[in-house]
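Q: What would this chain look like folded?
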Amino acid sequence: MHPVLSTVLKRLMLGVLTLFMVSVVIFCAVSMLPGDFGQAVLGQSATEDAVEAFRQELGLDRPAALRYLDWIGALATGDLGTSFSGRSSSGIDRSRPVAELVAPRLANTLFLASVTAAIAVPLALFLGITSALWRNSLYDRLASAGTLVTISFPEFFVAYILILFLGTLWALFPSLAAVEPEMALGERLYKSVLPALTLTLVIVAHMMRMTRAAIISLLASPHIEMARLAGESPRRVILRHALPNAWAPIATVIAFNLAYLVVGVVVVEVVFVYPGVGQLMVDAVSSRDIPVVQACALIFAAAYILLNLLADVIGIITNPRLLHPK
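A: My prediction, written as structure tokens:
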């Protein structure tokens, strides 16, 4: 078997094992949430008999190991379970499948992440490459200082600053991103400006600095030094020798930062009350809706692991030692 194929298969197997371990952590963490799930779902007015019947109906009185195996078995068939919300102490059951709750929210989160990536990736690559090429110049110092300041602030702080200036003092954009499925694309984009801008500022800062470091490291490589010693012009060195070999580390940087973007939407969605998976998970934690919490957490974990695997695969298939083994 070719070394590249075998290495990629090993990474994929490691990703599956990692996702399995993460599922165990998610299940244990949700199980350790304080309070009684039955009481939290049915409300304070529920009697002890109703709470006990509710727990028995959902299998909450069973050992944790058996409940985990049931959950994993259902996931293997594509069943995310049934939400606890909609149940009441009066016996009325209006609960919905978790997939129906998650699907529209996931579409909103992917929309926000796509808009952010479409803006952040080209901008970060431009700033990172130009800063590396004009290293130690005034432009490089200003770009590095600006991104360092942005990185120093957490996402929620950046979000509140944007709300203050662009949503309150100068009411250019709505402070609450209340998007709905029937909205036109233009209106959806308009309402998503502030959360997308918040994520863009954070992602651009991380990606720009990582891209700059990757390009600087590449420019210091022996083949670039040989090209310079051979008398080739700086423009030819960059265009012919540096940039064609830089796409692999740049693609890895993009994949890692997109993974960070998927996880970072949680805080931003809560601040702007954006109807995405992150907001759904926070609401589900508050209401002790176990199936929804587990499904949302597993979606975030799977996306993060998948994008990190993509970064690893890109690095592997572009490794000359693996592509051309002796």
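The chain has a mean pLDDT of 82.
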